[in-house]
């Protein structure tokens, strides 16, 4: 989609607030689910609002380092889930585990800082040769395609009571209905909408899906049979169960420094190094792919200006800041990039406002609870469009490649098959280090590209000899 607002454009503050809310809705679910997964795995009490606060602060740090030239939001990274779980598994106490999250994120951030210094010294020419369009194009497509299962799975999620004895065997048709209403409303607004409607399709789509889910949920209270309970999509009980006296987030640094740290020692630091540093190198590859994709959308090479060294510093230091408050490392979000592509709004003012909004809303419990009640099926409908746009962005890069050349064909084929096939590799004593399918396909693509082009000489353009008449 052609950009309506460029990176440096400044929509009115009224429009900016609406655009920022749309960005927040796009990244909200993934950002707050990371602490939920870790809590379920190790019994910790990481705060969802703390993760949202940390994402906002991390994004502000990123914007400062990138001189407000890169319009993308940073949210909780899924790549470090295994690392976070290992931080608690190797800790002598919960407080040590919380401190481990901060120190581990610092190690990961330092990896980014070191790479950034090398890029600053040697430039990005070597990187463009290592990751040309034939490698980056299919990798970007894989970023979207690898998330397809999540989008479809969420769309098919029905009642939040699913799995209990009361609703066992219930179908997912209700969730699918809400998801499709969300998806088609989003599409209709984006394609047929005028002016502002065209630029906020996600807000309208989520609103339509939430309204339908509310109707189903209201009907579900008419009876206790499985058929009725299967329609209970929205968990409004969260409002009744909330601790209204706790209006502020439980920040990770508070939990770390107010507990028993006597078990913190050198062995534990080595555990953190092993858990976080290898993953940081893996996420670096995804960082490059994300910024190449964003560059193609805004038609400006972010690896040159503001520079890869600045985006890396912003991501690395932003991760440290995010973990300090919320426990999770941050990373640039594909949902945010997709939102830029579909809405046509690349204004960095929107991202800045989104970051401030995330920070403020983390202290407003009613609003945080309202956002947390948006059902998975509704977000799934939105994500079908978001992830699809990421995949298509990569396919557009492939379109410019000569696939009649077997060298290019092999590179693209290896990346697509390994990525779609989900070639994720885990290693370490407890499998705490995982090379994601995106990173694995990118690494194999790079190796394949080097192999098929081994010994190939760069073509020098022919110079015509012209004779003056």
Textual characterization of the structure:
The longest helix is centred in the middle third of the chain and has 33 residues, at 266-298. The protein is 67% helix and 3% strand. The protein is mainly α. A two-stranded antiparallel sheet has the order 1-2. It has helices at residues 13-42, 48-65, 81-89, 94-122, 125-130, 133-145, 148-155, 173-192, 196-199, 201-220, 226-229, 237-241, 252-257, 266-298, 303-326, 334-343, 348-361, 365-372, 376-399, 406-420, 437-452, and strands at residues 74-76, 330-332, 425-427, 433-435.
Quick structural summary:
The chain is mainly α.
Top keywords for this entry?
single chain, 469 residues, two-stranded antiparallel sheet
């Amino acid at each position: 989609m052609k950009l309506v607002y460029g990176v440096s454009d400044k929509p009115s503050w009224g429009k900016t607030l609406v655009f920022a809310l749309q960005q927040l809705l796009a990244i909200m679910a993934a950002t707050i689910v990371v602490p939920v997964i870790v809590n379920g795995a190790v019994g910790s009490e990481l705060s969802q609002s703390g993760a949202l606060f940390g994402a906002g602060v991390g994004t502000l740090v990123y914007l400062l380092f990138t001189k407000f030239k890169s319009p993308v939001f940073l949210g909780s990274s899924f790549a470090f889930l295994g690392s976070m779980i290992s931080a608690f598994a190797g800790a002598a106490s919960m407080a040590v585990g919380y401190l481990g999250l901060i120190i581990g994120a610092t190690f990961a951030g330092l990896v980014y800082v070191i790479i950034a210094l090398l890029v600053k010294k040697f430039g990005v020419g070597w990187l463009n040769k290592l990751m040309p369009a034939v490698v980056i194009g299919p990798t970007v497509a894989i970023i979207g395609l690898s998330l397809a299962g999540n989008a479809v799975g969420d769309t098919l999620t029905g009642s939040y009571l699913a799995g209990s004895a009361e609703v066992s065997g219930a179908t997912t048709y209700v969730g699918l209905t809400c998801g499709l209403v969300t998806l088609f409303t989003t599409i209709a607004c984006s394609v047929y909408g005028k002016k502002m409607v065209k630029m906020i399709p996600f807000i309208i789509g989520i609103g339509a899906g939430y309204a339908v889910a509310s109707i189903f949920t209201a009907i579900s209270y008419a009876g206790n049979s499985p058929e009725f309970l299967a329609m209970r999509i929205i968990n409004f009980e969260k409002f009744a169960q909330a601790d209204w006296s706790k209006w502020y987030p439980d920040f990770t640094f508070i939990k770390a420094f107010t507990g028993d740290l006597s078990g913190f020692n050198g062995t534990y630091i080595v555990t953190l190094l092993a858990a976080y540093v290898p993953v940081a190198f893996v996420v670096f590859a995804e960082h490059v792919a994300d910024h190449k994709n964003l560059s193609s959308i805004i038609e400006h090479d972010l690896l040159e200006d503001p520079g890869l060294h600045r985006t890396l510093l912003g991501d690395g230091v932003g991760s440290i800041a995010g973990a300090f408050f919320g426990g999770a490392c941050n990373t640039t979000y594909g949902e945010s990039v997709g939102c830029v592509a579909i809405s046509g709004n690349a204004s960095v003012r929107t991202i800045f406002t989104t970051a401030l909004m995330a920070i403020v809303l983390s202290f407003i419990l009613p609003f945080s609870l309202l956002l947390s009640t948006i059902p998975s099926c509704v977000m799934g409908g939105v994500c079908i469009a978001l992830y699809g746009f990421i995949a298509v962005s990569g396919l557009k890069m492939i379109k410019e490649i000569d696939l009649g050349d077997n060298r290019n064909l092999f590179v693209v084929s290896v990346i697509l098959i390994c990525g779609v096939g989900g070639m994720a590799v885990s290693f370490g004593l407890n499998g705490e280090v995982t090379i994601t399918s995106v990173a694995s396909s990118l690494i194999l693509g790079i190796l394949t590209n080097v192999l098929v082009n081994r010994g190939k000489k760069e073509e020098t353009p022919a110079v015509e000899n012209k004779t003056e008449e």
